[in-house]
Write a structure and sequence with these properties.
It comes from Mesorhabditis belari. The protein has 2 domains: about 20-215 and about 365-390, Distorted Sandwich (Acetylcholine Binding Protein, Chain: A), CATH 2.70.170.10; about 220-310 and about 320-360, Neurotransmitter-gated ion-channel transmembrane domain (Methane Monooxygenase Hydroxylase, Chain G, domain 1), CATH 1.20.58.390. Helix content is about 40%, strand content about 25%. The chain is built from 8 helices and 13 strands. It has helices spanning about 1-20, 30-35, 215-240, 250-270, 280-310, 320-360, 360-365, 385-390; strands spanning about 40-55, 60-70, 90, 100-105, 105-110, 115-120, 125-140, 150-155, 165-170, 175-180, 185-195, 205-215, 380-385. Strands 1, 2, 3, 4, 5, 6, 7, 8, 9, 10, 11, 12 and 13 form a 13-stranded mixed sheet that branches. Helix 5 (about 280-310) packs antiparallel against helix 6. The longest helix has about 40 residues, at about 320-360.
Length: about 400
């Protein structure tokens, strides 16, 4: 009973403090309308974490927490008159809050809780935190898949006012949790706010995120098996060997075609349906072409080899003519083996060079910068960016 009485007394006291602070407070009137001073609202994202990657739709589902901080002089208080409390907590519905819209997402859901309160400091500083799960639209370069970049942006904007009345300022949260997932990892994070050079603009803050794809999965599951299947196909068909041990080019080619088709399907399931060829898709298609050419040349060379050995002995052939015929047949077989060896070396060289060229796409990924190509950089102030972004803009 004692602790129940203490709890009830504490809640009654908190209710009285809230009522006292809100005496004469009109939440329908914004701070700017009272003293004609610009309201500065600080925005930060203490949490941005990937939940799901939807490659075909170029969408990433993310958990996003948005923190707002602003001052309202009507809510200043003396801690000595409020039980020496450092903060007071009020329901959001009782206080004027800066409106904002979230752009750059397909769909979002707002996490509402029973304790949806704001925190007020003695100097009138108000703190609010909203939580969302949003499907964020991303720009990507499928030509470099799987060495591609996912470039995502979340825009917070207020179309109802201009920069004279309200300004949004992006801030970097000290304990921010900015993470990718098992498929993507965050490499760049940039915060940009609308510059006050033109006060007719609307307040806006942008949070840009850049994700790089983890390529180990695709290298082990698709790239390396494709290289191995193609190498074995070329070797099995074109590498010179005794005729009695020769392999059937058609069967080897069908097996290779089936294996590479499955890998191409896996790649297609992870790409948007565009007319652009990804690097990995092109790699598999070239592997298919090499296998088909190996089958065609292998079939022709095998036919020449077998035809030479199956020629009927002419009637009345003497010893000298038989020696000439055997020598001619041996020459054909030797020529077939030489051509087969040259084709084997040529196709293997093409495959190796193509693999090296495909691996060079990783260098384009490492040299990619997220903000140097943005046309709106001149009209925005950068409040936070990674070192690479600042270097690309000439700030450091």
């Amino acid at each position: 009973m004692f602790w129940l009485a203490v709890f009830l007394l504490y809640n009654v006291e908190a209710f009285n403090h809230a009522g006292k602070l809100l005496e004469g407070y009109e939440k329908r009137v914004t701070p700017w309308e009272i003293n004609n001073e610009t309201l500065f609202v600080n925005f930060s994202t203490p949490l941005m974490r990937i939940v799901e990657v939807k490659n075909q739709g170029e969408v990433i589902t993310m958990l996003i927490d948005i923190e707002l901080e602003w001052f309202d002089k009507r809510l200043t208080f003396d801690p000595a008159k409020y039980g020496n409390r450092s903060f007071l907590y009020l329901p959001i519905c009782d206080v004027t809050t800066p409106p904002y819209s979230i752009l750059g997402n397909v769909a979002r859901s707002y996490f509402e809780t029973k304790n949806d309160f704001i925190r007020i400091s003695p100097n009138g500083k108000i703190y609010l935190r909203d939580s969302y799960q949003a499907d964020v639209l991303c720009q990507t370069n499928p030509e470099n898949f799987p060495y591609d970049i996912e470039f995502c942006g979340v825009y917070l904007i207020n179309y109802m006012v201009n920069l004279t009345e309200m300004q949004y300022i992006g801030k970097m949260s000290e304990a921010a949790v900015l993470r990718g997932n098992y498929e993507l990892w965050m490499t760049n994070y940039t915060i940009m706010s609308a510059s006050n050079r033109n006060l007719t603009y609307t307040p806006e803050v942008r949070f840009y995120m850049t994700f790089e794809r983890r390529t180990v999965y695709y290298a082990l599951v698709i790239n390396f098996p494709s290289f191995l299947v193609t190498t074995l196909t070329i070797t099995g068909i074109l590498f010179p060997q005794k005729h009695e041990n020769a392999s059937d080019p058609i069967n080897i080619g069908l097996c290779a075609f089936l294996a590479l088709s499955v890998m191409l399907t896996v790649v297609a399931d992870n790409l948007p349906k565009t007319d652009a060829f990804s690097g990995l898709s092109l790699y598999i298609l070239i592997c298919l072409i090499i296998c088909i050419m190996s089958v065609v040349f292998g079939f022709i060379l095998d036919w020449l080899y077998v035809t030479c050995g199956q020629k009927k002995k002419p009637e009345g052939e003497d010893e000298k003519e038989r020696e000439v015929r055997k020598k001619s047949c041996c020459t054909v077989k030797r020529t077939v083996n030489i051509i087969s060896l040259l084709l084997f070396v040529a196709f293997e060289a093409i495959l190796i060079l193509m693999t090296l060229a495909f691996s060079s796409l990783a260098q384009d990924q490492k040299s990619y910068s997220i903000v140097e190509n943005l046309t709106e950089v001149a009209t925005y102030d950068i409040f936070h960016a990674t070192k690479d972004d600042l270097e690309s803009l000439g700030f450091i």
